[in-house]
């Protein structure tokens, strides 16, 4: 984990700009906001208060008082979060009333307690915007996670490259089924091997590893993220358990990982493989996705419009004859860090800034042919964009 809390300067700037008395956040100990603000994962919910340039934390008495670097005070307080925060503000802020900044997600009861204590609540995006720009240490941490992601996808490529194609006469399965290590290779077997490699690399699969086989399945992922399941449902019908789906030669197989490193920072990588590809639809779809991937290395400059980048990814994919409404993915990515999805989003009029780290995704889905997808993590550098980790993009798993 990058050392020390983050966001203090940005919060102080927002407080000064709004002439506020302080900032309050009610955090989950294992949530990304809490990890960002404290520099560590806490095993409890807590109240975070920033006032007069100092940080104060309040935790329940049921836990040991944690050590948090640079915090002026860390104490127990079993009162409701809003009352605990109001008490800290009364003791630490220069004024006993006025505007208090908070994120839009502050619990309703906490907001009511602060208002009843005489404070006017105003929302701020200071923490969200600060998290969108990663410093050098954060970028190095993301790169480490992304390297683990690459090695996990490489494991899938290795297995696919070593697989044989079954002939019904040999008793290993129906014609065309891939056979590995003496048995038909299913999406679930491949997913487990990918997750095993992630574990060896010291990162958490985070319930986000998916193997999508041809047009016969949505994903072999169990217990995956709600956001990911929703995006798949929007583009291809309801997700279903395809853990027993056997992989077949000539069909596109999408292997996607989004692991979480030891410090909480995420990676994201997806590649599409075809064993004994005959060309045709998947080849054209792959060329489209690869071209869209290249667009990100041209358009993701500091000062460029994030929304324009997103539209260019979609437009370049569609330029190869795919429907923008029914085939080209709408989820082309956005910021990545302590969350798999954070600011900036690739829509609207937000400008990209040096230090933004983006998950960039190009994908095409067809009801009969299946899906082709390429996903990478890109950093917006002062001198231009570059992939955090470069990985082969070809359909042939032997290229790895």
From TrEMBL:
<feature type="region of interest" description="Disordered">
    <location>
        <begin position="208"/>
        <end position="243"/>
    </location>
</feature>
<feature type="domain" description="Peptidase M24">
    <location>
        <begin position="243"/>
        <end position="380"/>
    </location>
</feature>
<dbReference type="Pfam" id="PF00557">
    <property type="entry name" value="Peptidase_M24"/>
</dbReference>
<keyword id="KW-0031">Aminopeptidase</keyword>
<protein>
    <submittedName>
        <fullName>Xaa-Pro aminopeptidase</fullName>
    </submittedName>
</protein>
<dbReference type="InterPro" id="IPR050659">
    <property type="entry name" value="Peptidase_M24B"/>
</dbReference>
<dbReference type="InterPro" id="IPR036005">
    <property type="entry name" value="Creatinase/aminopeptidase-like"/>
</dbReference>
<feature type="compositionally biased region" description="Basic and acidic residues">
    <location>
        <begin position="218"/>
        <end position="243"/>
    </location>
</feature>
<keyword id="KW-0378">Hydrolase</keyword>
<keyword id="KW-0645">Protease</keyword>
<dbReference type="GO" id="GO:0004177">
    <property type="term" value="F:aminopeptidase activity"/>
</dbReference>
<dbReference type="InterPro" id="IPR000994">
    <property type="entry name" value="Pept_M24"/>
</dbReference>
């Amino acid at each position: 984990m990058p050392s020390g809390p983050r966001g203090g300067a940005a919060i102080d700037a927002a407080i000064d700009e709004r002439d506020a008395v302080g900032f309050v956040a009610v955090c989950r100990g294992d949530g990304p906001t809490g990890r960002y603000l404290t520099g560590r994962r806490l095993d409890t919910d807590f109240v975070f208060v920033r006032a007069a340039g100092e940080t104060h934390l309040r935790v329940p008495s049921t836990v040991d008082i944690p050590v948090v670097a640079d915090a002026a005070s860390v104490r127990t307080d079993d009162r409701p979060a809003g009352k605990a925060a109001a008490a800290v503000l009364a003791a630490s802020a220069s004024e006993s009333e006025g505007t208090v900044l908070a994120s839009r997600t502050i619990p309703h009861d906490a907001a009511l307690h602060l208002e009843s204590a005489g404070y006017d609540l105003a929302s701020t995006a200071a923490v969200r915007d600060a998290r969108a720009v990663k410093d050098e240490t954060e970028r190095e941490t993301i790169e480490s996670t992304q390297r683990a992601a690459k090695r996990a996808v490489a494991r899938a490529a290795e297995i696919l490259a070593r697989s044989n194609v079954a002939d019904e006469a040999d008793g290993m399965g129906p014609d065309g089924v891939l056979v590995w290590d003496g048995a038909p290779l299913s999406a679930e077997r491949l997913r487990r091997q990918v997750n095993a490699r992630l574990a060896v690399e010291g990162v958490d699969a985070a319930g986000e590893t998916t193997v999508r086989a041809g047009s016969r399945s949505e994903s072999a992922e169990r217990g995956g993220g709600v956001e990911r399941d929703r995006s798949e449902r929007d583009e291809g019908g309801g997700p279903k358990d395809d853990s027993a789906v056997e992989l077949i030669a000539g069909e596109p197989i999408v292997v996607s990982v989004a692991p979480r490193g030891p410090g909480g920072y995420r990676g994201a990588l997806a590649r599409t493989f075809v064993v004994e590809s005959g060309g045709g639809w998947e080849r054209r779809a792959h060329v489209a996705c690869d071209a869209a991937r290249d667009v990100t290395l041209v358009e993701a400059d500091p000062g460029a419009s994030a929304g324009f980048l997103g539209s260019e990814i979609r437009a370049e994919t569609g330029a190869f004859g795919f429907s923008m409404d029914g085939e080209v993915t709408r989820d082309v990515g956005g910021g990545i860090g302590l969350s798999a999805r954070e600011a900036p989003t690739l829509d609207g009029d937000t400008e990209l800034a040096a230090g933004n780290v983006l998950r960039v995704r190009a994908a095409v889905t067809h009801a009969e042919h299946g899906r082709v997808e390429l996903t990478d993590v890109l950093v917006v550098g002062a001198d231009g964009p570059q992939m955090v980790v470069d990985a082969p993009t070809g359909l042939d798993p032997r290229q790895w």
